[in-house]
Amino acid sequence: MTGVDTSWIKQLLRFERDGDTFVAAQPATGPGPRLFGGLIAAQSLGAAGATVEPGKLPQSLHLYFVRGGRYGVDVELHVERTRDGRSFDTRRVTAVQQGAAILEMIASFHKPEPGADQHPVLPPSVQLADTHQREHDLGYAAHFEIRTRPGDTSPFAVPPFWIRTLDEIEDDPLIRACTLTFMSDFGPVPVARPADTSSGSDTEYAASLDHSVWFHRPFVPHDWHRYEVRSLNNSDSRGLVSGSLYDSQGSLIATTTQEALWRL
C-alpha cells in the first residue's frame, strides 16, 4: 500500500499488549446499542494471530457471542496458546469488557502446503451488472461498497449481494483475514429470520449467537466479492444459515455459518 494511509481495519487492530493479553480501544459510538459482532470477532482474530509465527495463516474460527458489548469501553482480549504444531497452531480468545466475557473464540492457523484446489461451481444468484448500489446507514458498512438486488429495501443489506472495501487494505494475510471476518457478519441475521414473518414490531428481537468462518483462498478486499447466504433451519426461536463468499471469477474464498436468535 505504497502512499496509502493506514487502513481503518489496521487501526482497529492496534492493541496495547502485555504478554498474551491485548487491550483494544473501542469507538465511542456505533450504529446500534451493542458493539458490532464482526468488530469484536476481527479484533479477537487479530490478537490470536499476533501470537502465531508469520508463516501460519488463519484457517478457521468458531466463536460464541456471550453477551452484548458496549461502545466507548476498552475490551481485553485474553489469548490462550492451546497448541503449537508443525503445521497448525490453535488459539483460544476470551474477549472481556468490564470484567465480563462478551465473546469466546477458537481459531486455527495453518502453514500453507500443496494439495488439491477445487470446489463445486455455484452459479451466481445475482450478477454484479444486475445489482444497484445500496445507500445505507449501517455504521461500519460505510467502509464498504455494497450492491444488492434492486428490490432490496430492508434496513439491512440482504444477501445475495456484492461487496468490496472502498479503500485498499494492507497486503497482509492476517489483516485481510480480519477484514473478511468483519464483513462476514453483514447479512446472516436477516437471512436467519423465519420466512413469511412481518417486520416492524416493537417487541421483536434479533441477535447473533455464534459464528464460524473457514478461510479457503487469498482475499483481496478491494475487489468485488459475492456473498451468498442461505437458510438451513428455523426452530426454537433460532435460525441457522450458511454463507459462501466468492470472488468475481467464481472462486470460493470463504465459507461461513451463523445461528441467530429471532424473537418475534
From TrEMBL:
Limits of the Acyl-CoA thioesterase-like C-terminal domain: 129-261
Keyword Nucleotide-binding attributed: no
Cross-referenced InterPro entries: ACOT8-like_C, Acyl-CoA_hotdog, Acyl_CoA_thio, HotDog_dom_sf, TesB_ACOT8-like_N
Alphabetic keyword roster: Hydrolase
Family, per entry: Belongs to the C/M/P thioester hydrolase family.
Ranges for domain Acyl-CoA thioesterase-like N-terminal HotDog: 31-110
CDD domains named among the record's database cross-references: Thioesterase_II_repeat1 (cd03444), Thioesterase_II_repeat2 (cd03445)
Cell membrane recorded as keyword: no
Pfam families in UniProt: 4HBT_3, 4HBT_3C
Protein name: Acyl-CoA thioesterase II
Source organism (scientific name): Mycolicibacterium cyprinidarum
